[in-house]
Amino acid sequence: MARTPRFSLAVVRAVCTCLGAVIFLLPTIGVATAESKRILLLYSFGREFKPWSEYAETIRSELNSQSPWPLDITEQSLITARSSDENPETAFVDYLRALFAKHPLDLIVSIGAPAAGFIQRHRPQLFATTPMVFTAVDQRRVQYSDLTANDAVVAVRIDYLGAIKNILQLLPDTKNVAVVVGTSPIEQFWREEIAREVKPLENRIAFTWYNALSFEDILKHAAALPPHSAIFWELMSVDAAGVVHEGNTALARLHAVANAPIFSYDESFFGNEIVGGPLVSVLEVSRQTAAVAVRILGGEKAGDIEVSPVGFASPKFDWREMQRWGISESLLPAKSEIRFREPTVWEQYRWQIALMSAIVLVQGSLISTLLIERRRRRFAEVQSRQRMAELAHTNRYSMAGELTASIAHELNQPLGAILANAETAELIVKSPAPDLEEISEILADIRRDDQRASDVILRLRNLLKKTPFEPKNIDLNEIVDETIKFLSGLSIARETELVGVISPLVLPIRGDRIQLQQVILNLVVNAMDAMSNMTRTQRRIVIKTARNGDSAEVSVGDTGPGVLLNKLKDMFEPFFSTKPNGMGMGLSIARTILEAHNGQIWAENQALGGAVFHIRLPLTTLPN
Fold first, then answer.
1. Looking at 311, 327, 362, which one is the last position of a domain?
2. In the chain, how many domains are there?
3. How far is CA 123 from CA 87, 92, 128, in A?
4. Are residues 123 and 211 in the same domain?
5. Average pLDDT by stretches of 10, the chain with 624 residues
6. Which among 291, 320, 316 has a CA at the least distance from the CA of 305?
7. Distance, CA of 533 to CA of 234 (rounded, Å)
8. Is 583 inside a domain boundary?
């Protein structure tokens, strides 16, 4: 049987002792872990003075991001840096020493050259053993010989000559550069340093220095700069009138009135007023500062940490300022970054434009197809009209055969009268005493009969003439009356009574006289054919004209046998005919002609017998 193992009493006691020790130490470990690192951020000038305010805000953010410990960050401003009077510094040193006497600091971070100079001047009296990081300060402003083992430096290197050369690269025609700089000690230092650095360019451009002017005078001068000028913003903390300028107000006011583009050296001024170029990166300096601070707080000796000065970052430019001053993108240095570029319409509405383009293409294709179809249709209509005109012309020729007897009868009457008058005139002339008055009357009769014969021939010629469709303003009453006269001879020959009932109202229409006359001729001749088997007294055709609202109407009624009800709709179709030898094209041609005139034609049977054909045409206005 297996035996259960037993622990000795000593082992049990040892385990209990260790557990008790761990439980006892847990509160102490928690307190140690929760203890914050105390850091002082010392500003140059004040919290709202650029560029140091931008560095302070970014350094604070980077410290909180990189630190594994909770941080207790205190901020103080070196307002004594605004003047060269060092007397107030002693009181400020005493204030800081008293402020942190009971709560020593773990680290001091000085931001900007004025703060760095203050720390180095009063290090022995202030915090002799507290680690310090000097940051956002040009390496020319650091007293490296005065650094202690507790000091680390994250310096920058401002290349003023490179900054001015950037202006000349973007604006090759520049002749004058106005430098904005104040009168505080640090600003006077940089005024002299800039003048020294840009000395090689003095033969190419002229420099105007604003350190001796009040800011109000600077604004006036900047608003009236000569052509081909540029403005370089160094710093404006205190102007020549002793006015202190915090934040970004001064730069914004200058930007509002200046008639030349503004440039600078630090990224903290970028975003609204300056064109841009190679700039000191606020983020890069802040990241390195926070990294050095964390190393010091972690136990490293500040003096053993070496960081290379931070130079200009890759150039960045403000698209809005480039557009304002006409700076071409092709002139920018290589690897330049353009910010605030206004997106093109394509970039903003790419999908909408693509969709609309597709829709336009589809619509364009549809429109093109419709235009092609319209062109084909119009071509087909033209061809159809030409064929219709040819058929109508052929129809008129065939009708002319039926009118031959009537035409011959009409011609024989005036020709016979002319012959009789001519013979009578000849006898009178041969008489011993010719009656000249009677001869004159005979000649007048001859002229009248000749005109009558000429009118008959002209009507026939017009009927047979092949002419294109020529709509004109005409009176429908005149066409009907003329057609009745033209058919009078045929009605006599066919022993048919032809009656015209013409409306007393003018019926103005727009159409082709010959084609409309042909329609009426077709209807009348068809009516005569329909009554061919009836007695003479039964043959009667009535042609009426009337106004019906906005339309003019013509009706041709006969006393024939009428039309079968099932044939009323078919009789206007091509090749439909009730005649043994008919082609079936007359009524079809008539309908085609009337449709070309925006008119209508239909047929019906009369209550008392016979058929009646109705024509309706839109009225128009005859010219005066």
1. 311
2. 5
3. 16, 13, 6
4. no
5. 36 36 38 72 83 91 95 86 64 86 90 88 85 94 89 95 96 96 91 95 94 95 96 93 88 96 95 95 96 96 94 95 94 93 80 88 90 85 66 57 56 67 77 80 76 64 61 90 83 86 93 85 87 86 93 93 80 69 70 88 89 93 55
6. 291
7. 121
8. yes
